Amino acid sequence: MCDTMVRVLPGRVLFAKNSDREADEPQVIEWHAARDHAPSDEVQCTWIAIPQERHTFATVISRPVWMWGAEIGANEHGVVIGNEAVFTKERVPSVGALTGMDLLRLALERATSAEDAVRVIVSLNARHGQGGRCGYEDTGFRYFSSFAVADPHSAWIVETAGRSVATERVTGVRTISNGLTIPGFAEAHGDLVRTRVSECGTRRARTTSSTSRADQLPDLMAALRDHGASAWPHYAALNGAMDAPCMHAGGLLAASQTTASWVSELTPEQTRHFVTGTSAPCLSLFKPVHVDEAFDTGPTPTTEPDDSLWWTHERLHRVVMRDPARLAPLFTGERDALEARWLAAGRADGAATWRESRTALDSWIAHVDAAAHGTRDERPWAARRYWNRRRHAGP
Q1: Assessment of whether the complete model's pTM goes beyond 0.90
Q2: Which residue of the set 2, 134, 200, 246 is catalytic?
Q3: Fewer CB within 10 A of the terminal residue: the chain, N end or C end?
Q4: 116-144 CB burial, b ≥16 within 10 A, e <16
Q5: How far apart are alpha carbons 296 and 293 in whole angstroms?
Q6: Where does residue 81 fall: left (phi above 0), alpha (psi -120 to 50 degrees), or beta otherwise?
Q7: Separation between Cα atoms, residue 244 and residue 230, nearest integer Å
């Protein structure tokens, strides 16, 4: 499950996305340089190889570690894209095609504008189709995708159902949340039952409202941290906290969680991107990344807890969520101050901010661990049961 938002304003475009996936599925932030390729080269995507372009553009992506494709990303031309799983009447092939995440990364590597990225997605979907496993632990989970595509001048929505595609240019505010939305296309192709279980209507109503009020990057960050009517998640027994943009796993039948987040401000003069590279934006620190320079976020996470940024933050996240009202305030004030300083800096030093963020994270873990000793888990029984059964349940 995911939520992606765009707002087209005079002279600039705002973009934000929460990537909601399985709770133990790490994501990594990567920079890739522009490259030239030989005429015979192929690119190995998640499940299939396709012909490579002669030149690919520099990108920054947020990628589930087991995939080639990306959930969110930006390129050197100021194009930024987020994708969503959508549930359709069409059956998703089990093998032999691109995933929606592959389409996103390929479009970033090949497009010089949002309109050009739409063309790439549409043409590659027509040529190769979508299919193959999209779930991490749930190996039977497959889906088609929708996309929000933006650059400093415009934004577009692209929705797919098999090789059928609909596109719509955005005016004002537009958000997508796991349901088909383009009139006519949605009625013809949407699976109403699975769409309803995803709570996409509830989330989309909230993101449309918050994005309509968003004028700056901090407004987008707040929109991604939204838990709905309460300050912290409200868990339903069947699908956990799936009814708000800042999603927390904990349901008996469905359990999805925000595992990475991204906000962008796109203008003709500059593009600004802030990313978490960690789960739970309500507890995470948004850090600046620049597409025109390499940066180091530390070791790539593996499938087991390790010293990577993503898994280190999980230590903090999984302790705090036992009683967030008491434990989160121990560090969120300092987090907010760091973000405010980096936002005020214009172009913050990317390498320095990532080093500073890791030092702060280590300090917060030590502080929270000391305060959490003997803490009672305040979540309802279904959420407690879910987390107690996790392979990496934390302390």
Answers
A1: yes
A2: 2
A3: C
A4: bbbebbbebbeebbbbbbbebeeeeebbb
A5: 10
A6: beta
A7: 10
Length of the chain: 395
**Residue 374, SS3?**
coil
2 noted as active-site residue: yes
* Phi, psi at 263, each rounded to 5°: -135, 145
What is the CB-side half-sphere exposure of residue 235 using CA atoms within 13 A?
24
Please give the structure tokens belonging to residue 388.
């107690």
* 271's tokens: 């593009």
Write the CB contacts of 261 (distance below 8 Å, at least 6 apart in sequence). 16, 17, 18, 19, 224, 275, 276, 281, 284, 286
Q: Which of 18, 70, 13, 62 is nearest to 270 (CA)?
A: 13
Dihedral sign computed on CA atoms, order 258, 208, 228, 357: positive
What CA–CA distance (Å, rounded) separates 135 from 139?
5
Q: What six digits make up the tokens of 98?
A: 């691109």
Indicate the helix (H) or strand (E) that contains 364. Answer: helix 350-372
CATH of domain 2-294: 3.60.60.10
To the nearest 10°, report the CA torsion of 194, 239, 235, 212: -30
Q: How many CB atoms lie within 10 A of CB 187?
A: 10
**CA–CA dist 122, 250 (Å, integer):** 36
Helix, strand, coil percent content, the chain, rounded in steps of 5: 30, 25, 45
pLDDT along the chain (395 residues), means of 10: 94 97 96 97 98 98 97 98 94 92 98 98 98 93 96 98 97 94 94 70 92 97 95 88 91 86 97 97 97 91 93 96 96 97 87 93 96 90 90 53
* 219: CB partners within 8 A, 6+ apart: 210, 213
pLDDT tens track for 302-332:
989 999 999 999 999 999 999 999 999 999 9
Contact 367, 330 (CB under 8 A): yes
Domain parsing of the chain, residue ranges: 2-294
Q: Report the interhelical angle of 350-372 vs 309-320 (nearest 10°).
A: 30
